[in-house]
Amino acid sequence: TTDVDGRATFDLTATANGTDTLTVSALGLTSTHTVDVSTDVFAFQLPLAAPAVTPAPPATAPEIPLNQNQTLQVLWSDTNGPVQGMQVTFQTSRGTLVPANGVVTTDAAGLATVTLNSTNAGGATITATNQLNTSTQLGVEFVATVADSLELQADPFTIATDDQSTITAIVRDPNGNLVKGAVVSFNLTDVTNGSIAPQQAVTNSQGRAQTFYTSSSTTSQVDGVQIDATVIGTPTATDTVFLTVARRELFIALGTGNEIEEPNTAQYRQEWIV
Question: What is the CATH number of domain 149-246?
Fold first, then answer.
């Protein structure tokens, strides 16, 4: 039975090698899908060795530091044991492989080994395909770890009393890559007794760390609230934003009549009040 999203889920149990065809029918419509069944084991070896770091669930994608060689291995075995002397082709959506063509041969242990490296941060999918056209995939994340600069943003820059503004720090490395895992410290200078929380935050995969400024019931001068942000351990990676706390307006009303004047032959005029 389909769920609220129109999806029906089922389990498939294979009993023999070969190609199976799945057929699904509903409301007069039919769809088919081909599944290759194999008793071979063909999978990436996890966890990855250093320098990769595998964070705790649910963020289980291994993190690989930029500009560092990462070894990847796929194990291929069948009912007779490790499959030796067979080609496996690796492909990656980000970074480079060694060998460059991604083609390697399994060793006596059934392992196919390549080296992966990237100079730019972000997610990547590595696909390994063997000579029987069986494939397996691994998702990883290349992360920049060296903070060089910080950009601080506020949304909005002008707020009412007893209101809130989101303060976002964006941290980059010397090459402009977004830095993950940098600890950013926020400092507030504010005579109106506003507050920020949290005082520290850690950048995510987008290089962003956030805090929130909450104004008091007192207005400030123009740009009277100052917030500084600095990457801990990198004092040169710092920036400042200024906020203004203004009095909240209750409403603005516009009004006019139904008469239009003609002051001259080229213009019309209508009076409005605010």
Answer: 2.60.40.10
